[in-house]
Structure formats: structure tokens, C-alpha cells
Automatic annotation (TrEMBL):
InterPro entries: ATPase_P-typ_cyto_dom_N, ATPase_P-typ_P_site, ATPase_P-typ_TM_dom_sf, ATPase_P-typ_transduc_dom_A_sf, ATPase_P-type_domA, Cation_Transport_ATPase_IB, HAD-like_sf, HAD_sf. It is found in: Cell membrane. Gene3D superfamilies: Calcium-transporting ATPase, cytoplasmic domain N, Calcium-transporting ATPase, cytoplasmic transduction domain A, HAD superfamily/HAD-like. This is P-type ATPase A domain-containing protein. It comes from Agrococcus pavilionensis RW1. PANTHER family: CADMIUM/ZINC-TRANSPORTING ATPASE HMA2-RELATED, CADMIUM_ZINC-TRANSPORTING ATPASE HMA4-RELATED. Pfam families: E1-E2_ATPase, Hydrolase.
Amino acid sequence: MLWLGRAARRYPLVAITVLVGAAATVAAALGAGDAARWLCIAWAAVVVVIQGVGMVRDVLRGHWGLDILAITAIVATLLVDEYVAAIIVVLMLTGGEALEDYAAGRAKRELTALLERAPQRAHRELPDGELEDIGADDVRAGDVLLLRPAEIVPVDAELLSEHAVVDESSLTGESLPVELTAGDRLLSGSVNAQLAVRIRATATAAESQYQRIVRLVEEAAESRAPVVRLADRYAVPFTAVSLLIAGIAWAVSGDPVRFAEVLVVATPCPLLIAAPVAFMGGMSRAARHGIIVKGAGVLEQLATARTAVFDKTGTLTGGAPTVERVLPAAGVDDDELLALAASAEQYSSHVLASSVMLAARERGLELREARSASEEATFGVVAEIDGRRVVVGKLAFVREHAADAREASLESGELAIYVAVGDRFAGAIIARDPVRPEAAATIAALDAIGIRETVMLTGDAWPTARHVADELGITEVRAECLPADKVEAVHAIERRPVLMVGDGVNDAPVLAAADVGVAMGARGATAASESADVVITLDDLSRTALAVRIGRDTKRIALQSIWLGIAISVALMLVAAFGIIPATAGALTQEVVDLVTILWALRAVSRPGDPAVPRRASTASAPADRAPVAR
């Protein structure tokens, strides 16, 4: 019964209306019909005054609300002594907020679940080995934490124990447990499995992966879609049509009861609630599939997108290139070439840098520290190592420092990293970054839902770019692009709205330039995620096509809900104009129309054909107080 008390405190007018209705029913059953009548009339008059003051205030602010219909209906039913119908309309009017909150709660269930699942507590290890429980927001970088079985990782961290098994399904879509070893990164929001482990925080809660997703979710409900604002603009004509039909019915019949009977079925619910519920449902549906949409307006832009633009590395490809071979220049040892290149690449944020360093480590080569280093984004890095200047990057960049640098012979799909030492060309490192297995199907899916123009933007050379585009069926390619070139290319596209999909820090400007920027943020490219309108938290490119489909489904359902409700209301008004629907029956019918409209809008929450949602891996474990700790 506690929930009844909470509901009554939150919606006092609804609670009083229900009590008045119940009291009037009892009074009428006991033969006190006049008492029941005056009780309903008195409370209805109070509600008219309360709502009327708010309505006048809104009109003075330039906002025409639909409450005028309900208030007019209440007054009309009271004047013709239809007090039962009046109290039903009062319940509809006062219960509108509660009904909208309930429907919105159903619609945004997945968004709410994400917020509720945010890590709250952490166990910090003190210098004497004791533990203290602190809030997740109090964790600082460098803190050593104990993570017990089945607990959520509170902040991004480094694993100190020898091994751990975690569930990252809510972040990456990987349904199988992920095995980690000492030094590996743990993402906040992932779940520890069998053993208690020690971790070192590498970021505060606010800077961690899951909290960034939470902030995106909190932003998602802020904006209103153009369809929702369009529904607001329907308020004036709908009110005018309703009053016109009611007035004509009264004038032709000469019976003022007809006026009241028409207005009690003129429900504004489809305009007030249906569209917002549909868009909230669409955002919730997207969140369930790892797609965070930052607002209802973004969802509508997705629905109308006509061109899709993709970055190549890390988006269409896996973003984890592997070194295929090393091609040293004459007189240069291949191990020395790889060691120098990897030592310089330590100071680069480019995805290829990790591949070069990994290849060097696999050969057992030692990476050296640089006395100085600087990176030119998308071009390359220059470092002073062992007293020598080492330049690693694109051919044109390396040629600025070594005029004898020459282009390597590449096979289809390969890419080259060029190296110069001093002012001499030292050789090239050849790598391959295979396309994502789902990339071709994603392009085909976009084409099937109406996005037939696809563009790939990349800083890679033309042969590599053309090979990827041909393999995937992409219609247009822009290669050897700088970040500014990508922004200019997006601005120049005529078929709009434009959808831009990327994942790296260098994609942030072009994501912001597109009509809808989509960031592949499974591993947290912060700048790109913050610039984007949509963040895909799973490492799955096919969610791009799903996001567009969700946008189109949502807009269609929202418009259907609006027009379905309006059509039913107008039809009922026309029937009521002939005196076929009594006022009380009409008021009850109106509530049924509201329910039908909301249920139709809630269809946006899930649709047939959606991919399966990854199931969380089992985290059954020993009790927390005696769980073994992996060291």
C-alpha cells in the first residue's frame, strides 16, 4: 500500500478526484443523489479554476494548450447536469500527467536501467592493508581498489592481480566472459566474475567509460523531436475543429447537451502524449541494442538520413592492423628498422602505432626512450632516439625529411608506414587492416532501407582506399584526406541529412559537421563520443543500420499514433453530434481512445526482427566476505 501513498502525494488532484468519485458513487447508492451531484460539481469547479489559471498563464506566454478543450467540456457537462461525465473528464484532465509519466516510464525502461546500474560504491585499499568503503565518485586515479565477485567495476582501471574474468557485454556486446591478465585495462561498467581482484584506478568516475555513457543517457531525454513540436502546432486547429463540430451540433439540434457530448470525446491525448512516448520508446529500444541517441530530434534525423559517410580505419575495418612484413632500405637491418619505428611510435596516438609496437615486442625487440618527440595528427611522428632523428608516417611526410624515400609496392588491401633515420630513407613497414566481417552487410542493409549513397573518407592512399570500397560496395571514395578535408567533404554533400560514422579522436570535427554524427565508442574515443549525436557502445558496425531503422520506425509510429488518435476522435465527435453517444459513455470512450493511442505509441519500444540482446555472462561466485583474491 506504500505505493498508493507515494502516488497520492505525487498526483494529489488525481487522488482527490478518485476519492470524490468514490464518495459520490456511495452517496448515490445510498439514495443521496443530490449530495453526490453537488460533491462532483464542487470538485469539478475547483479543478476548472486551478487548470484555468494555468491555461491563461500559458496563453499569455504565447503557448496555446489543449487543456481548453477539457476545461470547456467540464463546464459544458456541468451546465447540462451531466455531472458523472464531468467527473470522468476531470479524471482525464488531472490524470494526464500520471498517464504520461507511466507511459514514458514504460518507454524509457532501458534508459532508466542504464542509469540505475551505474556503479555506486568502491572498496579502497589503505596503506596498512585495511579496506574502506567509499562512493564511486570519491575514487581518484592511482587508488588501489578491491573488486569482489559479481561487483561492477566502479571506474576505468588497470588490473593488478595476475588474472581476472570479466563480463563486458553491456559495453561491447561480447556475450562471453573476457579473460584479462595483470596490466590489462578494465572498463567501468563491466562485471567481475569468480575471483576478488585488485585493481588500480586510472581515471575518476566522471572520466570513466560507463559514466560517459550515463551522461549521454541523461542528455537523451532533454530535446524534443520536430514531430513532437509539430504535434504542439496541431493544438489550435484541433481545438477549432472540435469546437466547430460541437457548435454546429448544438445549433442544428437546438440541444445544448449535444455540445457537451461532442466535447467529451474530443481527446487531446494523441497530441499531448503519443509522440513523446513514441520517441522515448525509440530511444529506449536503441539503448537496449547498445545505441545511445542523444535526443528525440536526433532520432528523427536518423529517420530521414539519405547519405551515409564512413571513416575507414577502425570503422569499416577492425582498427587493429597487423604488420605483414618489414622492407628495410639497402644497408639497414630489418630488426633495427622495426625497433626504431616502434620506439618513435610510442609517442603517437594513431592506430597503426600500436601495431608497430606489438610487432617489435613479438620479435623481442627493446623499445628505447626518445629525448624529444612530436606528432602531426594523421601525418606521422618525429622523435630523437639515440641521438638520431627518426621520422615515421606517410610517404609525403617522410619525404619532407628524407628526399630519397620511395613508395613501396603493395598488394591489394595493404598499407605502408614509412621510416627515415636522419635525412636518409630507412625503409617501410607493411601492414594489413582487414574489413569488419559485418561491414558489407551493413552497407547492404543501409541500401535496403533507402540510404543508397555511401561515402568513405580516409587518410590512406588511393589503392588501399579503393580496394576497401570495392570490397564493400561503397559508391564514393575520398582518399588521402586531412581532418579539414573530411569536414569540407561532408559539407559539400547535397543529399541530406548526412550520417557520419567514425571512431577516432581525429573524427570528432567531422562528426560534429554532419547532420547526425555516429561514434563507434565501444572502447571509448572520448572526443569522438562527445562530438557525436549517436554513440554505439557495442563493437558492431551493423548497429549503424539498426539505428537508422529504429529512427524510421519511431517516426512512423509517432505519426501513426497522432493521426490514429485524431481520426478516432473526429469520427466519435461526428457520431456524438447526432446524439448517438451519451455524455457519460462518451467520456468513458475517450479514455479508451487515450489508451489505444498510447499502446500504439509504445510499439516503438520493440519491433520484430531486432537482433538478440547479448545476455550477461554468469557471475555466480563465492560469498563476498570469503571470496578468494587473485594475486
